[in-house]
Specification:
alpha+beta; 5 strands; Arc Repressor Mutant, subunit A; 243 residues; elongated; Beta-Lactamase
Length: 243
């Protein structure tokens, strides 16, 4: 095994903090390096989307891409099994797996693959997906290589979760900033309406809110438009009863 390539792969899979992080490119890196390092003929990566549906996201060859799509469409096969169970799925000779996967097995053999070893992409009880390794030769993969393969899958999983959490924090931060900005705008609109109609601030807020609801408007959008426009452009708002 190329130790320098192995070290570089772990570094690459752990580095998800770059500004232009591309999850598809990241997972293609995982599938390509799995082939280069683990003695596999081909590899594919499936992930569960937010609704729990399995999606093919990377494949090292067209043959395995088509096989993985067939696996999804047939709702049967090693990667679906590994994602359901969170445990490795090993089939050293697909010629004897007809009963296990009656639709997938003939398709895999026709594609030229005789062995499959699916590795879970998981962190504790959270299963994100699976790394499928295929070989054209019958017989199990080398156990030492499979331990490295699982370590690669685990590292990729941690990287994905870290990136997801980072995005979630950014989204929450953006939402908070938007809320704070909207609040400032709303206070300005309340003050403008209160001054115009001689209302207290609570009544001005009630008036704005009622108008927004009656006209199916977002309160923040109404407030922004009101402070940026001539009050005369809102005759209905200025003539609302201040109840």
């Amino acid at each position: 095994m190329d130790q320098e390539l192995l070290s570089d792969t772990f570094v690459d899979l752990a580095d998800t903090l770059v500004d232009d992080f591309d999850v598809i490119d990241f997972l293609h890196l995982l599938s390509d390096r799995a082939v280069q390092l683990l003695g596999a003929s081909a590899a594919g990566v499936m992930l569960a989307d937010p609704r729990g549906q399995m999606r093919l996201v990377a494949a090292s060859s067209e043959a395995v891409r088509l096989l993985e799509i067939f696996q999804l469409e047939g709702e049967e096969g090693p990667c679906l099994e590994v994602i359901r169970t969170g445990q490795p799925v090993i089939e050293p000779d697909l010629r004897h797996a007809q009963q296990r996967w009656p639709r997938f097995t003939p398709a895999a053999l026709q594609a030229g693959f005789t062995t499959v070893h699916a590795l879970p992409m998981r962190l504790r009880d959270q299963v994100l997906g699976g790394l499928n390794l295929f070989s054209e030769q019958a017989g199990p993969f080398d156990p030492a290589n499979m331990r490295i393969g699982q370590a690669l899958a685990d590292t990729a999983t941690i990287g994905l979760l870290h990136e997801r959490n980072l995005r979630r924090v950014e989204v929450v931060s953006e939402q908070l900033q938007a809320a704070l900005t909207s609040r400032v705008v709303l206070e300005q609109a309340k003050g403008k309406l209160a001054e115009r109609l001689g209302l207290d601030m609570d009544t001005a807020f009630t008036t704005l809110r009622r108008y927004a609801r009656e006209h199916n408007l977002r309160l923040s959008d109404l407030a922004q438009n009101f402070i940026n426009s001539d009050p005369a452009d809102f005759p209905d708002l200025l003539n609302q009863p201040s109840r």
